[in-house]
Amino acid sequence: MHTRLRVLAAVLLTLAVGVTAAACGTDSLHDAMGHDTSGMSHDGMTHSPAQMGTGRDADVMFTQEMIPHHQQAVVMADLALDPSHEASPAVQDLATRIKTAQTAEIADMTAWLKAWGADPVSGQMMDHDGMGMMSAAAMTALENAKGPAFDRLWLEGMIAHHEGALMMASHIADRGDDARVQKLSEAIDQSQTAEIAEMKKLLGQ
What we know:
mainly alpha, Ferritin
């Protein structure tokens, strides 16, 4: 399973530009990711709201960029559900919910892009820092961890990942015109805000 996940993670990570080298073997995921995820802002994104355009252009760009973002979250969820990582029941429960929700959303977004006649992946992906995407070094650190150390790395990484999704959702909120995209952005805002609070509680924050 690890080989399959590593291959999928590598494919997803090549979609992000500006991936930087980060320290391996660290106990802090923030260090491994090479940036401070607690202070993420819209300035950290490759695309500003204006660059997204409006109407269908904005809907397409949002969808193209949210698909690989969701795909990495599913990879992270699969790691948590792999018994070899000895994730806690609370983390496994959250991972199951994230995988279920985001897998369904990936299917919906893929269908929308097909109906729009758009490519499934944007040619101008946002920088992984801006989206909260896990770097290759951070994914390796996560794959090599287990037990309480895995839980901490996973929760820290997923919090940053969710924060990136919230920024993306806030950008599309007043720019797109497809009701389905608006409904999805609202669902992401509500569910992932709640999940961030849940994860911070698990971390004792």
